[in-house]
Amino acid sequence: MTRLKEISLQTPGRLSFIEITSQVEAAVRESGVQEGSIIVFVPHTTAAVTINENADPDVIHDLKGILQQLVPWVGPYKHGEGNSAAHMMASLVGSSETVIIHKGRLLLGTWQGLYLTEFDGPRSRKVILRIQED
């Protein structure tokens, strides 16, 4: 059986990493699925989703810094909306993650968390969850 759930949230700024692990865990609990997987998908071209460390906030700080070095906000971009860097960053990070569900829980590592990454905020964003039972 497959279940879909949508999480809506407001991002706080232009470049933000918002941890969504607890919302995704709650969706898994509500689904009742004990064994399976979940796809966490962001249907936006200037946002993404990633798994990374959720214990030390310096990791997120460093990720933001590296992304801004790799993709400067101002560049020789042709896209007319002025948010080309956001599109590039979103492509680098990716629009989805898949996580195994085991014994009703996300099978994440000890220090791992799920993040919605915002590159063109503040905005209202959606995260789509597809919960699949084995």
From TrEMBL:
Name the Pfam families on file: YjbQ
Q: What SUPFAM superfamilies does this protein map onto? A: YjbQ-like
User: Which intervals of the chain form a coiled coil?
Assistant: none
**Superkingdom assignment:** Bacteria
Family of this protein: Belongs to the UPF0047 family.
State what protein this is by name. Answer: YjbQ family protein
| Organism field | Heliobacterium mobile
